[in-house]
Fold:
Amino acid sequence: MIRVLLADDQLLVRAGFKVLLDAQPDIEVVAEAADGQQALAAVREHRPDIVLMDIRMPVVDGLVATRRITEDPRLPDVKVVMLTTFELDEYVFEAIRSGASGFLVKDTEPEELLRAVRAVVAGDALLSPGVTRRLIAEFAARSKEPAAADALSELTEREREVMALVGLGLSNEEIARRLVVSPLTAKTHVSRTMVKLGARDRAQLVVLAYESGLVRPGWLG
Structure:
C-alpha cells in the first residue's frame, strides 16, 4: 500500500485529491496538513511514502518544509512532489534543488496524478509532461561554474554516459534506445549511479549532472 500525505492550505484541493487517491486499491491517504509546519509534524509521525506538498503555504512554506524533510536522516525514504498552480512556478527550480522528486500542476488529469504517485514511489523523478526539458534548461541557465568532477570518479564510463543522458531529460526507455540496450539495463545503470552518488532520486541526479559539469548549458536540443 502506498501511503500518501496531503499538504495544501486549500481544503477543497485536499478533499479532491483524497477522494481520488483513497479510491485506489494500492493508495491510502494517511494524513493531511494545512501548512508546512503541520506537514513536517505529520511526516515524522506517519512516515508516508510520498508527500504531495503545495509550494505556497502559511507558517512554513512548502519549499522550506521539503528541504527539512529531504535533509532529515530519519526520513530517507520519504519522497516529496510539489504541487503548483503554474507549470513554470518560480519556486519549482529551487524545489528540485531542495530534494523534491518532481512537481505537478494542481489541475493535472486524475490519471496523471495517480501515475505520478506510483512512479515517484517506484523511484522515478516526476516532472509534468512538456515541462521536463524546460525546467532542466532553466536549471542549466542558472547553474554556476561546475564543481570539480571528483564525485564522479567512482562511476564507470557507461554510468557517466547514462548520467549525462538523464541530465538531458531522457527517460529509461529513451536511454535504452540511444545506447541500444534493454530498458531494464538502462534502469539498472541509473540505479547504480544514484547509489554511488548518494542521490535520493532521478531529479537529484539531474542536478548533480549539471553541478559536476557532466552536462553543460546549451546541450539541450
Observations:
- Strands lie at 2-7, 27-33, 50-54, 79-84, 102-105, 126-127.
- DSSP finds ten helices and six strands in the chain.
- The longest helix spans residues 183-197.
- The chain has a mean pLDDT of 83.
